[in-house]
Structure formats: structure tokens, C-alpha cells
Amino acid sequence: MLYSNKETLLELYNALNGTDYRTVEDLEITTLENAVYLSMKNDVSFLLDAKMMLYEHQSTWNPNMPLRDLFYIARLMEKYVIKDSLYSSTLTKIPAPHFIVFYNGIRSAPEDTTLKLSDAFGQKENDPSLELKVRFLNINPGFNSKLMERCKTLREYSQFVAKVRKYTGEEKAIEKAVEQAVTECIAEGILSDFLLSQRTEVVAMSIFEYNEAEEMRKFGQAEFRGGKAEGMAEILLLVLENCGKVPDWLKTRILTETEPSVFENWANALTGISSVEEFLERTGLKECP
């Protein structure tokens, strides 16, 4: 929501690249939408200065961002060259892609690192034929201070999330924690204009983010009560992949299960987990010898 606004998006780009672009008309937002590509939706992508920028946000650790970005950039480039013939003798020019992930989860993570698609290859190669590099930036308070100084909106977003975490840590109900954080931020001038104009939606979305696993569990139970087990394997894997790397044997086990009651038990086990190992411990699932 915050970076769907061209002014704030341009501010973020300038802060990351040490540039001073001021004309928002030079920036073209290209974000994929569900309506066009079903489940294919990225956070923010845009064209500027002959570059295709893809900015993603993670509130949970997910090492699969290079693979996800590969899918996103393929769709975006497909749209970009749709009027060109790729079989002609003329080289089709495309914008240079750049990938950034902004992370503010509670799991410890480096300040500034690079995630590579080749890290996911089953067989390591010295010179992979296909590579995709994602710059990973930790935006929790205390990290990347120079970037935060240059980008007011990113700094204040980090402060807002920190306040929500502070109050949920005091065992307040998530609804009260978010409301208190929003009220304080407005009073202190932190994202105040944005929060004043979007307060209701920000509160609702923040509550959902913190209850995502619980929402998934409830959704799964509702599906089963309605006699619909289809798609639950994909939902389970989506939640688990946000908690870490899912072993191939576990993916196979989940994808081949057909019993609704088993899926419901697994959905219950997702509540509040922070790792795949915790899910395995709760369910007792083990790799068969």
C-alpha cells in the first residue's frame, strides 16, 4: 500500500541507488495483479531508467525469493515484449532487471546479503547457465542505518512495525496492539498522513498479517467442513515455505495425502509455528527409510 504511491516509490529508489530522480512521470509501475495471472502477484515492480525493478517485502524468513522472482520477471518481460517478434533478426531490447527484498521478520538475518537462484540447485555448478541474484536487506531497527536515513518512509514503516511488535510482546490482543501503534505513530508524526488516510485498512491488514497462520488454519477447516479437500496441500506448503526450507520427502507426503481429517490435523499444527521443524515435531511426521 505504502509504495503503490509513485512519490514514495521514487524516494525509495533514490535512497537505494544514490540517485536524485524527481519526475514521477518517468516511473511506470508494472506490478502483476491476481486478476490477470491468478495466483501470480508480486509486491511492487516498476520501470525507470531502462531498469525493471522488483521490490518484495518479507515478514517471515523465506529463502525461495530468487525462484519466486524468476517467475515474476518472466511474466513481466512477457508483457513488456508482447508486441515484438522474438524470431526476427533484430535484437529485442529489454530493461535490466534488479531484485530487492526488504525483510523485517523476527528471525535473525544478515543486514545486507545476496540470495542466489543457484543456491537451490540440487547439483551445485561453478558457472550455472541460469542465475538470478536478489539483494536482501534487513530493515529492522538498527540495521541499514544509512538507507533508513535516506528514506523516510522506509524508516517510519520499520518504526511502525516495531511498535506493533512491542505491544504484542506485552501480551496485548493484536487488535489493541495495532490500534495503539497506529495512534502513537500518528501522534509522533510517523507515517502520519498515510495512517490518517488509510487507518481502517492498515489496521485490518496488520491484524491479518499477524494472524496469517491462524487464518490459513481456519480456512482449511472451513474447506473440510464443506467437503472440499482440494488445494489444501498447496495451502499447507505455502505456509510451511514461509517458515523455512521444506524437505522433498515432506512435500511428497503432503501432496499425496487425500484424507481430509489428516489435512485438518496438519492445519491445526500450523498455528503459531516459526519453523518447519516445529511443524514436524507437532505432527510426528518423519522421513521413511
Note down, in words, how this protein is organized.
The structure is a single chain. The protein is 48% helix and 12% strand. It is globular, with a radius of gyration of 21 Å. The model is unreliable at 35-39 (pLDDT under 50). The chain has helices at 6-17, 34-37, 65-80, 145-150, 152-169, 174-188, 192-210, 212-225, 232-241, 248-255, 260-269, 276-283; strands at residues 28-29, 44-48, 51-58, 96-103, 112-116, 133-138. The chain is of the alpha/beta class and 289 residues long. It folds into 3 domains: 2-150, no CATH class; 151-210, no CATH class; 213-283, no CATH class. The protein starts with 5 loop residues before the first helix and ends in a 6-residue tail after the last helix. The protein has a 6-stranded mixed sheet, with helices on one face.
Question: In a few lines, what is going on in this structure?
Answer:
This protein is an alpha/beta fold and 289 residues long. The protein contains twelve helices and six strands.
The amount of beta strand, in percent, is 5-15%
Radius of gyration: 21 Å
Question: Stretches where pLDDT falls below 50 for ≥5 residues?
Answer: 35-39
Order of helices and strands: HEHEEHEEEHHHHHHHHH
Look at the structure and give the mean pLDDT: 86
**Based on CA inertia axes, which overall geometry fits?**
globular
Q: Name the strands of the widest sheet in spatial order.
A: 1-2-3-4-6-5
Question: What is the CA–CA distance across the termini?
Answer: 47 Å
Q: Give the oligomeric state.
A: single chain
Helix content, binned percent: 40-55%
Main beta-sheet strand count, sense and barrel state: 6 strands, mixed
